[in-house]
Amino acid sequence: MNKARSIQQQAVADRLAQQFDIDAERILFLNEEKPEEPWLPAESLLTIARRSGNFQTIDESFDQYIEPLSQVVHRATVIDREGMTYTRSGVATINEREEVDAHALAAGRAVGAALTAAGFNPLRPGAVVSLDLALPGGDVRQADEAQSRNADLRRIHAIAERKGLILPLPGGGWDRAGYRRLLMEKFGVNTAAMFDATQRASFINILDQMPDAFADEFANVA
Amino acid sequence: MHPEQLKFEIYEEELLNPLHGHELSDVEMFVSSLLLGASREHPVGIKAIILGVNASKGYELSERKVKDIIRSLRKGHAFPIIASRKPPAGYWWCGSVEEMQEFIESFRSQALDELHTISQIVKHNFPALAGQLSLEDYTR
After folding, report:
1. HEC-encoded secondary structure of A165-177
2. Three-state SS string across A46-73, please?
3. Within an 8 Å CB–CB cutoff, is residue A114 touching chain B?
4. Could you give the CA distance from residue B60 to residue B115 in angstroms, rounded to a whole number?
5. Hey, where are the domains in chain B?
6. A140 to chain B: nearest residue by CA?
7. Would residue B123 be called left, alpha or beta, if left means φ above 0 and alpha means ψ between -120 and 50 degrees?
8. Do B51 and A193 touch (CB under 8 A)?
9. From A35's CA, which of A5, A220, B68, B116 has a CA 20 to 30 Å away?
10. CA-closest candidate to residue A138, choices B110, B90, B5
11. Which is it for the CA torsion A185, A187, A189, A193, positive or negative?
12. pLDDT per residue over A80-117, tens digit each?
């Protein structure tokens, strides 16, 4: 069920609906920290991207259900006009949000991530990176995976720090004992660097749902 | 720990706790990550690194710059990135003790060959300087 929108949120939704000819009712606002940041479902993102004419192909589909983690994984692939392929996974936990079904959430994340990787931000249409390259297919995938791994690791470390899993050491550096414990518990390994894109998205989804360390610290304060 | 997991562990540890506090630059991070997907059977060559950086970062590296980056990853961050000049030629993260032993042999032979070359040049053309040649000169 959709929560009541603020005046600012309604204005953002109306503007996007008018600009891209999409259904304003399907635009959600899921980020509590940025209440005016819109969340567009996969269908709306696909509509906008297809109309842009910047892509040869855009596909999105259900990939897998990770039973031990109660997560659904969707996968999106976009091929831009230069023939560059970007594939990204989107992950959501069952019952993660009240307002939106886990499959819709995962699909939206997958499409959003794939379009972002291709340099296309639906809120800034036209911002597509033009890559004049003739890389063999395997090399393209390796380069994309290298870039994606680093971006995801930066995000994972930032979230893990916020959740108190990576702690600053007095003499400098970071204690990641808690972080490694969580990795072992959930995935049976002690580094996220070896994960593929789907596993990284799955781990990010787990981290995102943990309480912030700051909130925990004061959880028992009346 | 399984050697295949070790390289990923070393890489992530370096991101969080860089050796001597010297953080990886953006392009060093990219090259390290690119090479994590490589192996002895499928190494990544200089040309592929140049194209990969161009595709992902939007600028072109020279071959010299790629070699400098590899040197920095090895020397500044102690990453066990090894290479082969024989086909399939290229770089990859070391996956076993055997691979490292082979690389040590190859690297040592190359260094000794270069020292021998300079020794020959100096002895034949600048004999007065020959007495100054010592291994110490090349290990600074």
Report:
1. CCEECCCCCEECH
2. HHHHHHHCCEEEEEEEEEEEEHHHCEEE
3. no
4. 33
5. 1-95, 96-140
6. B52
7. alpha
8. no
9. A220
10. B90
11. negative
12. 888 888 899 999 999 999 889 999 999 999 999 999 88
Closest by CA position to A140, among listed A196, A85, A79, A195: A85
Q: Which residues does chain B have within 8 Å of residue A176's beta carbon, measured at their own beta carbons?
A: 16
Q: Cβ distance B79 to B73 under 8 Å?
A: yes
Asked if B135 reaches chain A (Cβ–Cβ under 8 Å), the answer is no
**Above 60 in pLDDT, residue A219?**
no
Contacts of A142 in chain B (CB under 8 A): 34, 37-38, 44, 48, 52
Q: Give 3-state DSSP helix, strand, coil % of chain B, rounded to 5.
A: 65, 5, 30
* Model pLDDT for residues A33-55, shown as the tens digit of each residue: 888 888 899 999 998 888 888 89
Cα–Cα–Cα angle for B43, B49, B53, rounded to 5 degrees:
150
Distance, in angstroms, between B130 CA and closest chain A CA? 48
CB of A160 closer than 8 Å to CB of A207: yes
A127 CB near a chain B CB, below 8 Å?
no
For residue A60, list its beta bridge partners: A76
Q: Do A143 and B56 lie within an 8 Å CB cutoff?
A: yes
Which tokens is A33 given? 């920290």
> Count of CB atoms within 10 A of residue B6's CB?
17
CA distances from B47 to A209, B53, B54, B118 (A): 42, 10, 11, 29
Q: Which of residues A121 and B113 earns the better pLDDT score?
A: B113
Could B48 and A139 be called an inter-chain contact, meaning their C-beta atoms sit closer than 8 Å?
A: yes
Task: For CA atoms A142, B88, B31, B20, give the dihedral sign.
Answer: positive
pLDDT for B71 beyond 70: yes
pLDDT of A213 over the 70 cut: yes
Nearest to B21 among A140, A166, A172 (CB): A172
B17/A173 Cβ within 8 A: yes
Q: List beta partners, residue B14.
A: none
Assigned token pair, B117: 């070359």
